[in-house]
Amino acid sequence: MNDLTGKTILVTGAARRVGRLFALACGRAGADVIIHHGHSPAEAESVKDEIASLGRRAWVLAADLSHADKVSQLIERANEFSPLYGLVNSASIFEPLSLQDTSLDDWHRHLTINLTAPFLLSQAFAKQTNEGRIVNILDWRALRPGADHFPYTVTKSALAAMTKSLAVALAPRITVNGLALGAILPPADVDPAGDPSASEKVIAAVPAKRWSEANEVEEALLFLLAGPAYITGEIIHLDGGRHLI
């Protein structure tokens, strides 16, 4: 089911953290991968080398998603390497801002990168792709929003709505689904090995009482990229049940 041989997938934000997991998962499933990054050239080249070691082709594309003109060109540039079959909108910013702490610049920055960029990429992808799949990376907060990480949560909620609208607009040629993540990777300031209490605090509200394993993240993405084409407009929660409580 998870065979992507002969397919080319563009993963945004693929140089680091969960985007890196997604890119490598696609490579292991047989896909050729276009690795987008904003400001991480060394990390992107490392991902490229790992995918090449699997016998797959990989390319690196740099683009600052805060600039609309750069975003609009990204799909066209990617198709020059190989016709795209899949788009994974993974790149985002995640800042711990409350309502009162959020400036207008903060608000616009989150909207531009977390919502406008996926819109522009999906629009361009649909224009240049006859058949394919889009996966938008969401957050459990998207369907159960709270007051924390205010601009991030609002933009992810909007992206969840856009996922469903795109699914209708692009059917039957392109499926569009969302993957809502929970405790996948510890934040940069949390080291489960060095500070178990910090890790325990993060997962205290997770019914599964643990972090996700990397293979679970990979399998969920591949299900949406290579699984049943009759699934569209769906949002799968990979959060250990966090959105339920």
Q: What are the main properties of this structure?
A:
alpha/beta, 7 helices
Topology:
Layout lengths: L7 E4 L5 H12 L3 E6 L3 H13 L4 E5 L5 H14 L4 E4 L14 H25 L3 E8 L10 H21 L3 E8 L14 H8 L10 H13 L8 E4 L7
Give a written overview of the molecule.
- The protein has one domain: Rossmann fold, CATH 3.40.50.
- It has a 7-stranded parallel beta sheet with strand order 3-2-1-4-5-6-7, sandwiched between helices.
- The longest helix has 25 residues, at 104-128.
- It has helices at residues 17-28, 41-53, 68-81, 104-128, 150-170, 196-203, 214-226; strands spanning 8-11, 32-37, 58-62, 86-89, 132-139, 174-181, 235-238.
- 43% of the residues lie in helices and 16% in strands.
- The protein has 245 residues and is α/β, with parallel strands linked by helices.
- In whole angstroms, the N-to-C terminal distance is 32 Å
Structural class: alpha/beta
Strand content: 15-25%
Note the quaternary state here: single chain
Output the radius of gyration: 17 Å
Full CATH superfamily name: NAD(P)-binding Rossmann-like Domain
Tally of individual domains: 1
Brief summary of the model shown:
The protein is an alpha/beta fold. Helix content is 43%, strand content 16%.
